[in-house]
What we know:
Elements: E1 2-3, H1 10-18, E2 24-27, E3 30-33, H2 38-53, E4 65-66, E5 83-85, E6 88-96, E7 102-110, H3 112-125, H4 135-153, H5 158-180, H6 188-201, H7 207-210
Antiparallel strand pairs: 1-3, 1-4, 2-3, 5-6, 6-7
Helix pairs in contact: 3-5, 5-6
Amino acid sequence: xxxxxxxxxxxxxxxxxxxxxxxxxxxxxxxxxxxxxxxxxxxxxxxxxxxxxxxxxxxxxxxxxxxxxxxxxxxxxxxxxxxxxxxxxxxxxxxxxxxxxxxxxxxxxxxxxxxxxxxxxxxxxxxxxxxxxxxxxxxxxxxxxxxxxxxxxxxxxxxxxxxxxxxxxxxxxxxxxxxxxxxxxxxxxxxxxxxxxxxxxxxxxxxxxxxxxxxxxxxxxxx
Length: 223
């Protein structure tokens, strides 16, 4: 599989015409080309590079790579088994089948770079300093953004995103409560317990709570 190619819009028609048996996806200047073998992948990489060169373009020397989509029924050993596309990291992951068994598949989940960007946004909220807001107002402030993340990054391997949101957002809510209420100053355990109680009673308050990213100790599941 070739990933992250730099190309113009005429690429789609050209590839359809010259390589009709090859599947591909493209978004702006990034694309994935599906191949049945490493030999075919190398051939297409060279063909595409030559095509772009005619227009004064070239493949990105670092991002363009051949990736082996390893999973249970593909047991060959290759160095490259992971790539990033549209905010998702594609790599071998375990997933539960309908009959309860676990199987390794080549699956997407929220990427490391997307997590880094979301973490920066969460820090930028400075929730611990928003003591002039009520709990509901804090929820209103962040819910639209968090709901957007869940809607996009939660489409595949949602459990990884939910675990990330629980780990990143809930501690900030604890710090907010500790600064907001005098009886919770210097009492993080008490603040965490109180947050879990609120989540158990009102699990719909925050967008991430509704999807299972609840504080430790909560007694409800995802809605």
